[in-house]
Write a structure and sequence with these properties.
Layout: H1 2-24, H2 29-65, H3 72-112, H4 117-163, H5 169-178, H6 184-192, H7 197-302
Coiled coil: 207-262
Biased composition (Basic and acidic residues): 1-17
Domain T-SNARE coiled-coil homology: 204-266
Amino acid sequence: MRDRLAAHGRNNSEAHEMSQVVNGAGGGGSTVQNFLSEITSIQSSISQLDSNIRTISTLHSRSLNTGTDGGESKAALASTLDNLITETRSLTTSIKQRIQTLGDETKDLAKNGKVQQTDLDLRRDHLSRIRSRFMESIQEYQRVEQDFNSKSRERAARQYKIVKPDATPEEIKELVSNGVESQGIFAEATLASSTRYAESRTAYREVQERQEDIKKIEKTLAELAQMYQDMSIIIQQQDESITQAENNAIEVEKNVEKGLEETEIAVKHARRARRMRIMLFWIAVFIIVVLALVLGLALGLKN
């Protein structure tokens, strides 16, 4: 309950901060507001993911502490755990896709120059935070599964030890890795002593369950490792694209400024040339008038 209240408080604080940003944003407010609304929704999904991970950790602990003869309650626990892991798998995939979509949209806006620099910085900041939080959740999930994997292997090793106390660490490791495929050891223990029959069967069932858990854990860990790698690649590619788009925009802006400067210089030269042509025109008119006067006077005096 404390965890849920703390998460609720964080979400409210982040939502209030986003509300202030949206209200103070200038230009493109609707687009920014949609972006921040999606960020808030993703944060809620990550909070749900964190809650699922904590519940999975609790169910793992209960699974380890439940006896092999738990009957229906143990089967119900396994079913609940499987359903929650499936739900969490879908949730992580959805969060990854939504974060990727936001990053692609931001990349396209930067590339097309359809967003102001302040809005682009805002998007980049929130994307960075939401990515980091999601990556931390993935790492926490990996830690929980790795811890359960280690404890499941230890539990299976103890069961092998019960049946074959003189087994070496190498033999135990091999038996845990091979799982039920090495069930011959249990048959040998049963044949060696009929009094150990019940003990051997209990150990065998426990090892079967642990081996199934180990297979599921390894599958989940492989999926989480792949998702973490995918997110790392997505982040690198999107950030590089956004940076490149910004650099291109800056270069275009410089070229535009340079073009404006050259245009202003050309205008100045054109104005100067126009003034020169006007001056030459009036000088020519003046010369023609003077010549006309001189010729008129000369002809008048002659007559």
